[in-house]
Amino acid sequence: MNTQSFVFTGSGGQGVITAAIILGEAAAIHEGLNAVQTQVYGPEARGGATRADVIISTEPIHFPKVVNANVLVCLTQEAYDKFGRIVQPGGLLIVDSLYVRATKNTEARQVMLPMYETTKKEIGNPVVFNICVLGCVLALTWVVTPDSVLSALKTKIAPKYVDMNSKALKLGLDMGEKWRASLGPVAAQKEAAKIKKS
Amino acid sequence: MSKREVRLMQGNEACAEAALYAGVKFFAGYPITPATEIMEILSRKLPQVGGVFLQMEDEISSMAAVIGASIGGLKSLTATSGPGFTLKQENIGYAAMVEIPCVIVDVQRGGPSTGLPTLPAQMDVMQARWGTHGDHPIVVLCPSTVYEYYTLTVQAVNFAEMLRTPVIVLSDAIVGHLREKVVLPELGELKIVNRKMTTVAPKDFLPYKADEDGVPPFVNYGTGYRYHITSNNHDEGGFPATNNHQIADSLLRRLHDKVEKRRSEIVITEEIMTEDADVIIFAYGCTARSAYSAVEEARKKGMKVGLIKALTLWPFPFEVLLKYSKQAKHVIVPEMNLGQLAGEVERTLKDCPVKVTRLNRIDGRMITPEQIVSTISEVI
Predict the structure, then answer these.
(1) Cα–Cα distance for residue pair B193/A126, rounded to 1 Å
(2) Hey, what CATH class is B271-379 in?
(3) CB pairs below 8 Å between A and B: how many?
(4) Cβ <8 Å between B296 and A39
(5) Which residues in A lie closer than 8 A to residue B177 (C-beta atoms)?
(6) CA distance linking residue B277 with residue B345, whole number of Å
(7) Which pTM value belongs to this model?
(8) A49-57 and A3-11 as β-strands: parallel, antiparallel, unpaired?
């Protein structure tokens, strides 16, 4: 890996900025990589299109904004319509299948996953939706290890919530793995090779 | 040596931590995006180190409280953004005139007025210099990374204490909210300056009698020294001298001279890949980050481009520009305003065979490296 860029988009309150911070911390603190994280949000406390960027690199990072994302996550239709094009050709576009109707004919690989519904069904509390999303991102990119993410998470949340967050992360990891497996053995191998190359 | 802690730290958090490192014991403020984190963090941490945190009823009173606390002997700091910075200006002028050390952090957002509350800009460059009336001196420091935000906040407190003058830390919504990997300096690693205290007895004390360096020694108010403070023109005793032309002249010149005398210490710049540069990008704050990436990209294409990063905006760092005035053919000044510091660059280079090109963006988004690279291609 030289540089990998991630953009998490959604609505204020969904936890996209938190997810981005945790990913950045996992990379910078627990894997010795460089990381920067920025965000754009509106003046509202809840709602409004929110965007959080993370750049992870083995090199120093100067310009902190993502122009062409390796990975774009969209958790609302508004975010998808607004930011859907910033993913680079061959990149990954991950959307929540409940909130987003993916229509764009991008050259990215579109991954539609029922992240919100699964979190709600399996855990019963949608507050960890963003951690499930992060699990999917990890499964599809392997940018940092789940252990690094868990270590970063533990410094952010009260001990009594660690279990719920670990479950959400695992849920996302499994969902991502399953998506890759569903491509069939040849495509799944190609997909894995792409990750290794990057 | 102990293993240093690596952190992914937000700019505003670094600023708050740096204030504590520098010995700040008083903060008064009023919440405003994108500066509020500084206040939130200090509201928790100042009481833990025996300091005082006050949320005031508005921006004006918080500036007044900061000055009052400093008169009482505490290193004092406040943080705000453009609209609040405007309200603080009257009291900043007061602090400059009565020579009370204080630090004002302005995390710039889009203006004028309440403008773009959550979006970045660099539109307060001239307000930081001339926001308050009268021919006052000011020191303005401008970070472009989280680490610089930390070290420059420590420097700002040091300069304020050393010079007895208000010092501005001019950051922006990008640097303020950016999270970046940092390893912070350990205690003892950065120099800490405390204000010079008087050594004379109360009967011999003249509050505005300056030493050789132009700075009068300090006493903490209420410690038995007769200490009169007025923002009117005043004599060495601190009493109004509003019809004395000679005192008016010498006081104001001294206020400027005390800053100018320390110019080499105060003016901080960085030169990056400039040795052979035909084109120099002169940048500051978050835009210096775009410029750094642009220089790297341009170098890959074989263009001889370098970056001068201004960490001190005021006093304006003309020396470093003049150093390259024979070597460079072009200077590009990218800024998130309509050309506030570019005017100073042009003024500095007006008699030199260097072409100055402005690159401006005011829509609440950063200038991209691509924009700068394409401007470089246009000028050469």
Answers:
(1) 51
(2) alpha beta
(3) 62
(4) no
(5) 38-39
(6) 17
(7) 0.95
(8) antiparallel
Q: Which of the residues A58, A62, A144 would you substitute to probe the B interface, choosing the one with the greatest number of B C-beta atoms within 10 Å?
A: A62
In sequence order, the 6+-apart residues with CB closer than 8 A to the CB of B35 are B12, B29, B79, B80, B81, B84, B105, B106, B107, B176
From chain A, pick out residues whose CB is under 8 angstroms from the CB of B174: 38, 64
* A42 has a chain B CB within 8 A of its CB: yes
Of B118, B177, B293, the CB nearest to A62: B293
Distances (CA, A) of B12 to A61, B32, B49, B171, B287: 19, 13, 19, 9, 17
The one-digit pLDDT tens for each residue of chain B (380 residues) are 456 889 999 999 999 999 999 999 999 999 999 999 999 999 999 999 999 999 999 999 999 999 999 999 999 999 999 999 999 999 999 999 999 999 999 999 999 999 999 999 999 999 999 999 999 999 999 999 999 999 999 999 999 999 999 999 999 999 999 999 999 999 999 999 999 999 999 999 999 999 999 999 999 999 999 999 999 999 999 999 999 999 999 999 999 999 999 999 999 999 999 999 999 999 999 999 999 999 999 999 999 999 999 999 999 999 999 999 999 999 999 999 999 999 999 999 999 999 999 999 999 999 999 999 999 999 99
The ranges assigned to domains in chain B are 6-183, 271-379
For residue B238, give the nearest of B272, B205, B273, B285 by alpha carbon.
B205
Amino acid identity for residue B172 in this structure: D
Strand order of the β-sheet with B179-183 is: A109-113, A87-96, A69-74, A3-11, A49-57, A34-40, B179-183, B6-10
Helix (H, G, I), strand (E, B) or coil at B183: strand
Q: What is the number of other CB atoms lying within 10 angstroms of the CB of residue B156?
A: 29
Measured at the CA of B134, the angle between CA B133 and CA B139, to 5 degrees, comes to 85
**Angle, CA of B368, B374 and B378, to the nearest 5°:** 145
Of B118, B293, B368, the CB nearest to A43: B118
A185 confidence band (pLDDT: 50, 70, 90): confident
CATH topology of domain B6-183: Rossmann fold (3.40.50)
Q: Does domain A3-197 match CATH 3.40.920.10? A: yes
Which phi and psi angles does B331 have, rounded to 5°? -125, 125
| Amino acid identity at A184 | G
The Cα–Cα gap between B249 and B233 comes to 10
**B368–A35 CB contact, under 8 Å:** no
Q: What residues pair up with B359 in beta bridges, in sequence order?
A: B334
Give, in degrees to the nearest 5, the angle at Cα B70 between B67 and B75. 125
Phi-psi region of A136 (alpha: psi -120 to 50; beta: other; left: phi over 0): alpha
Encoded tokens for B277: 């540069």
Q: Report in angstroms the alpha-carbon separations of A143 from A16, A34, A114, A136, A188.
A: 17, 12, 22, 11, 17
- Answer whether B6-183 and B271-379 agree in fold: yes
Spatial neighbors of B310 by CB under 8 A, at least 6 apart, are B142, B269, B282, B283, B284, B288, B317, B320, B341
Instruction: Measure A28 CA to nearest chain B CA, in Å.
Output: 6
- Average pLDDT of chain A is 91
